Amino acid sequence: MSSGPLAARWFRVIAIFEAITWTALLIAMFLKYVVEAPHEGGVPVVGMVHGIAFVVYLLSTLWAGITLRWSIWNIAAGLASGVPPFGTVVFERWMLRRGRLTTGSARSSAAAGAPSRG
């Protein structure tokens, strides 16, 4: 089995998970700084989980980019999309619509006239 489908699937899951951890971190920061919750609102723990998710996202972006033969610009955009909140989901959806999260055989069958999911 080719590592292309695995890299694409892993990239998509991690992109969404990274956005979920961003959400959790924003909520924890709201609790800490606005509500002034005890125990720092969970920021240290949620921040660490988000940091790990961010690093895993960067690694999965490199793996998917190399395996699926993305251009250097697509890889750079994918890496940069990890910085703003929810950028990973926007990038993942964009790459999915452009057909960049499929293997070469799936792309060639779509080019041969197979209907696309749009």
Descriptive key words:
single chain; 118 residues; mainly alpha; 5 helices; elongated
SSE diagram, text form:
Blueprint: H1 3-33, H2 43-67, H3 72-80, H4 87-97, H5 104-111
Description:
By secondary structure, this protein is mainly alpha-helical. It is built from 5 helices and no strands. The chain has helices at 3-33, 43-67, 72-80, 87-97, 104-111. It is elongated and about 50 Å long. The relative contact order is 0.16. The model is unreliable at 105-114 (pLDDT under 50).
User: pLDDT below 50 for ≥5 consecutive residues: which ranges?
Assistant: 105-114
Whole-Å distance between the termini? 26 Å
Helices and strands, in order, run as HHHHH
Number of strands: 0
- Oligomeric state as shown: single chain
Give a quick precis of the structure.
The protein has helices at 3-33, 43-67, 72-80, 87-97, 104-111. By secondary structure, it is mainly α.
